[in-house]
Amino acid sequence: MKPEVKTPLPGPKAQELLARGEKVLSPSYVRPYPFVPARGQGVFLEDVDGNVFLDFMAGIAVNTTGYAHPKVLEAVKAQAERFAHVCFSDFTHEPTLSLAERLVAKVGGGYRVFFGNSGTEGIEAAIKLVRHHTGRPYLLAFTGAFHGRSLGALSLTASKSAYRKGFAPLLPGVVHVPFPNPFRPPLGASPEEVGEAVLTHLEHLFATVLPPEEVAAFFLEPIQGEGGYVLPPAGFLPKLKALLERHGILLVADEVQTGAGRTGRFLALEHEGVEADVYVLAKGLASGYPLSAVLFREELGSWHPGAHGTTFGGQAVAAAAAQATLDLLEGGLMENAKEVGAFLLAGLREMQKRFPFLGDVRGRGLMIGLDFGSPEEPRPDLRDQAQKRAFEKGLLTLAAGPSALRLAPPLVLSREEAALGLEILEEALKSL
Ligand SMILES: Cc1ncc(COP(=O)(O)O)c(C=O)c1O
């Protein structure tokens, strides 16, 4: 397959569907550009008018194995023929139990698993778990973080005030700490010193307003996703973890976007040599089937039967899709994410030399952000135009943060397909 845009966008069928949507769908949905999918294969998506796009967004970093992977289809079909759902909160069943065992083995043992349907649900479960276990009221999170939109998860989310506007009061006891963004450092720090500045700020908070012995957990994304695909400075996370340990504060790693192989390792925290007390996985775990998994250290499992549950969480077809996804990740996709991601990043860094308005190019594996503008002057206008032009030329991307374009293709992306993406992006940037 090759990207091919044959009609003006949106095409006639897409226009019709978009117009129907305007009449019945919630106005809270965003539509960054008028793409209306009909079918997918591998890393390509065809729209309802027969235009073909190279997909560098994967349904917001979800479709790990691309579209219609035969192994995933086979697993889904086989489980759907047996049963789809018998409520895992009430009854043990094999597909989901085996998945739990496999996930625990992947983090080296000593954890237990709770299944939900979405990243938000996973975060919500983690909030309840750490509060219940520690009996401590406060939670910490970073500015720029995105942890979901239910009222609990939204209380941690701090990537855009628009997400919170109109919904207060949120959960009390959530305190935000500036994220050590090396490209746009907070606290007046230099990029080199920003990690230390944030740690000092946190110690200052503990000394003045926030008793650390009343803090249950710090929720963090190892790489900020919705906040702009931003990596913390090298060595920051191990220092933060040591500081939290000194105060008996749990670390919850929100690996909803970074996990399931996207960065070239199963968990992004593995790159940092840091272990979390709780991991939340979702998005890429089941190749597009709704599933989240909260893995928590065995000793945190002091909550009682009935303390938490959900009707659909751990649904059997989603679990079968996750098993097939794990087979493929272990069978070479993580390695592919690392290799093709490095190729893509190198190509983009070359591109940065030709387009000085690209202020920063960063990422790990197939989680890559291009930041438009300088640290002082973000250029969301250029980012939005680049996204639109890329779409018109057959490349699907998504925005993230104040001024970044995120590239999160399926992990089955080949080097040739990555090169094709670079070509389209180059054309899109030239046309700005
Ligand atoms: C890091 C992170 N956490 C949580 C969520 C919420 O997940 P969901 O949209 O599946 O509820 C997201 C979604 O983008 C995310 O990126």
TrEMBL record:
InterPro entries: Aminotrans_3, Aminotrans_3_PPA_site, Class-III_PLP-dep_AT, PyrdxlP-dep_Trfase, PyrdxlP-dep_Trfase_major, PyrdxlP-dep_Trfase_small. Its EC number is 2.6.1.19. Keywords: Aminotransferase, Pyridoxal phosphate, Transferase. CDD domains: OAT_like. The keyword Transferase applies. Its cofactor is pyridoxal 5'-phosphate. The keyword Flavoprotein does not apply. GO terms for molecular function: 4-aminobutyrate:2-oxoglutarate transaminase activity. Belongs to the class-III pyridoxal-phosphate-dependent aminotransferase family. This is Gamma-aminobutyrate:alpha-ketoglutarate aminotransferase. It comes from Thermus aquaticus (strain ATCC BAA-2747 / Y51MC23).
